[in-house]
Amino acid sequence: MASETILDVAGVSIQYGVIRVVNGVSLALRSGERHALLGTNGAGKTSLFNGIAGEVPLAAGRISFRGREISGLKAYQRARLGIARTFQTSLSFGDRSVRENMRVSLLGNGSPRIGIRPWSRMPAMERRVDDALQAFGLMEVSAQPVGELSYGQQREIELCMALIGKPDLLLLDEPAAGMSPQARKELVRRLEALPRDITMLFVEHDMDVALRLADRVTVMRDGEIVATGTPDAIRANPVVKEIYLGKSH
Ligand SMILES: Nc1ncnc2c1ncn2[C@@H]1O[C@H](COP(=O)(O)OP(=O)(O)OP(=O)(O)O)[C@@H](O)[C@H]1O
Fold it and tell me: Is the CB–ligand 1 distance for residue 43 below 6 Å?
């Protein structure tokens, strides 16, 4: 199925002070694709990811979402257009209940997309929160403070928070980081089960998770893209093999 480009990253550079860590990167995501960003430590994956989310400014280049340039927009404005993200470490409010965190998330990124007037919004919001909690099997813990739950549950909550606004583009920053092998499997299952109309871009260190989930993979080294392709093409790519296995292989 030919799909249109939903996210167009064109010639993007990012620098901290005078140090350029992303150098002229171009990347186009098709609507509905699941795209993994791989690379060695310090390759610039998180910086590029943060540039797309609107958390670091671009030194050069432009980013368009659904044909509209978003390079100058703040993170919350991008969220309102339908871009949601998760973080490597949880940003939820640990002393607040799971339900309260969901509400905050819905208000923060999704409320304009509910499409009804403020005075009548509350029941619709609660229904949306209930649906999300149910879908993630979190109803039983909905009244518990997030900080009292296990690390795995907290990561689930974070993903649920990102999804509650029904984003078109989901940015996942190392979704499997710190998880047990069992929790990783469950996460992969959950991500695989998401509706195909959600486009996904994720930074992931776990090659197995990345290659299993992704339709296409981009590999970065030293701030530049060295390969983009299907998981099979990436596995067979000599430069990628050299990066991950060393020159002798
Ligand atoms: N806020 C910052 N200020 C200065 N330098 C930074 C900052 N954030 C990252 N860097 C540097 O930019 C380079 C790219 O880092 P980045 O985190 O984007 O890479 P990465 O590919 O995500 O690495 P990792 O896999 O280790 O998370 C690194 O050399 C890092 O030390």
Answer: yes
Task: List, for residues 128-166, the tens digit of each pLDDT value.
Answer: 889 889 888 889 999 999 889 888 888 888 888 888 888
Lookup result for tokens 């002070």: 17
Measured in Å, residue 60 CA sits from the centre of ligand 1 at: 17
Output the pTM of the full model.
0.86
Say what the ipTM of the complex is.
0.96
Span 42-60, average pLDDT: 95
Structure tokens at 210: 């990345």
Nearest CA to ligand 1 atom 17: 46
Q: How far is the CA of 44 from the centre of ligand 1 (A)?
A: 6
From atom 5 of ligand 1, which residue's Cα is the shortest distance away? 16
Residue 111 has pLDDT above 60, yes or no: no
Question: Do residues 210 and 38 touch, judged by C-beta distance below 8 A?
Answer: yes
Residue of 22, 46, 205 best suited for mutating to test ligand 1, as the one with most atoms within 8 Å of CB: 46
Instruction: Number of helices (H) and strands (E) in the chain: give both, helices first.
Output: 10, 10
Do 105 and 165 touch, CB atoms closer than 8 A?
yes
DSSP one-letter string for 99-168: HHHHHHHIIIIIHHHH-S-GGGHHHHHHHHHHHHHHHTT-GGGTTSBGGGS-HHHHHHHHHHHHHTT--S
Q: Which atom of ligand 1 is nearest to the CA of 39?
A: 21
